[in-house]
Structures are given as structure tokens and as C-alpha cells.
Amino acid sequence: MNRFEPRIEVAVARVRADVARLHKLLVRGGLSTWTSGVVSGRVPGADLFVIKPSGLDHSELAPDNMVLVDLDGQVVEGTPGAELLPSRGAAIHAALYRHSPEIGGIVHTHSPYATAFALRGEAVPVLSTTVADEFGGPVPVVPYSTPDADLAADVAATLDAQPSRAVLLERHGAYTVGARARDAVRAAVLLEDAARAVQLARAGGADIPSLDAHDVEAIRARRLSADAARRDAERVAELATAGSYPTSRPGNTRPGGETGSWTTPDSNGSTPDNDVRTRTQ
Ligand SMILES: O=C(CO)[C@@H](O)[C@H](O)COP(=O)(O)O
């Protein structure tokens, strides 16, 4: 029996498939060892997200053993995967989704090069145009604090204070966020790539200064503008496919007027009323 109205059931099924598949990209990119490497994705139109189960080998992950969780961090009983425990980070993921409606996907890894920076308590610097383009500045470190501290609040505050969609956790690893789970995975992969490149350049004896701040800003601005144009084009294509928008002029199609570095979850083809709480009582 379905627990939700049909459009939410469809959205849940889509996010389950996405989140299960995206874990394979973490493994392929060398960002995951044992059961580490956790992806979650918000369900557009509902106060729900999908996350991997705790302790299961990545090779066993599939849409039907992903765990559906509400934004209070509670497993939605009676749904596939509900018999499993969600990943240990589920409460942090829930808090980040509550914190910002712009966050539609989250990744947590212990990927080796990013974690090496985290262990040193050192931000990943902007040595390359790629880091300027992707992160808009250095990838900052959330300072280590006691195990009882509110890590989600610290991650949220660090994300809010600067443009990067990635943060390092001192003594632990990294969190990345994005408009969709796929965007957060992309950020995690590119963070690891950036950390490795810096490490290799330094190992070769180079002492490379950070890019000039104005250049970083210009590169980032160009990227945000390209992202906005791409989203417009996607929106036009979606509306044209649905037969509800007759023009091909991208500039006319942004009802949400999104700005900043992330798209909002509902700018990805899902329904816009994502404040509606849909879990059946
Ligand atoms: O960061 C941690 C533990 O330090 C966890 O996120 C693990 O990396 C994955 O745990 P499970 O998903 O198996 O619970």
C-alpha cells in the first residue's frame, strides 16, 4: 500500500534510485572505504530524504534498501529499507536539510586527500581555476569540537559564511552539499581532486601562492552565470516536453528567480510546494 500521494511516491522512487546509484560513483572515485561514503537526497515536494543504510557494503546498495527519513531524522515506518538503521550521520543530514531549503543533496566522505587536509586543520587553498570555479574560495575547516557538540550547526554556520559547497571536518573528513544529490557528489569528487592536486604539487617542491582574490571572484561569477543559463535551458526543455510552455526563450522562464550558487530543489522539475508535510498520520 502506498503511504503518500502518487506524485510523492514517484519522487521517492526517483530519489531512491539516484541515491543508490550515486554511491557507486563514490566507490569508483576512490572516495569510499568499507561502509564510509554517504549520500543522501531530499525528496522534492516533501519533508523527507533518502539516505543509505548503516553498515551495509556499498556493493549491496539498491533503491529498495535505501532508508526514507523525515526531517526530524525519524525513519518512515512501513517503507522499503525501514527495517535497517539509517547511516549514522542521518541526524546531521536532517539538520542540514532543515537548515536550508536550498540543500537538496548531501555527501559525507573520508576521502583520503581531503581528509589529510582535515587532519591538518588546513583549508584546501585556491591554487587552481578549477577550485575557484567550483568552490568560489578555499574549502574551509570546521574546527574539531567534543563528540557531544552540535556538529550540524557548526557545518551549517561554516557553509553559510562563505561560498564553498564543501567543508572539511577537522579530525574527520568532509561534507558537501548541492541542489541535488548528484551536485553534492560532484562537489565531493572535485574536492578530493583539488586536495590531491595541491598535495602532489607540494610534493614536487612547489610553493604555489593562492590565486588573486579578484580573479577567483571573476571566475566564480562566470560559473554562476553559466549555471543560471543552463538551468533556464533545462527549465524550457522540461516545460516544452510537458507541453505547458510554448517558447524557446530561456530568459523568460525563471519563476523562482534563483540566485547564488545552488539551484533550489524545486528548480529541478519537481513540484514547488515543498513545505507541505506529506507523511500519513
Ligand atoms: O563518519 C562516520 C563514522 O565516523 C560514518 O558516516 C561512516 O562513514 C559510515 O557509517 P554508516 O553509514 O555505515 O553508519
Automatic annotation (TrEMBL):
Biased composition (Polar residues): 260-273
InterPro entries: Aldolase_class_II_sugar_metab (IPR050197), Aldolase_II/adducin_N (IPR001303), Aldolase_II/adducin_N_sf (IPR036409)
Swiss-Prot/TrEMBL keywords: Metal-binding, Zinc
Domain of life: Bacteria
Membrane spanning residue stretches: none
Class II aldolase/adducin N-terminal domain span: 17-199
UniProt catalytic activity: L-ribulose 5-phosphate = D-xylulose 5-phosphate
EC numbers for this chain: 5.1.3.4
Keyword Protein transport among record annotations: no
Cofactor(s) for this UniProt protein: Zn(2+)
Region of interest called Disordered, as start-end residue ranges on this chain: 237-281
Protein name: L-ribulose-5-phosphate 4-epimerase
Species assigned in the record: Protaetiibacter mangrovi
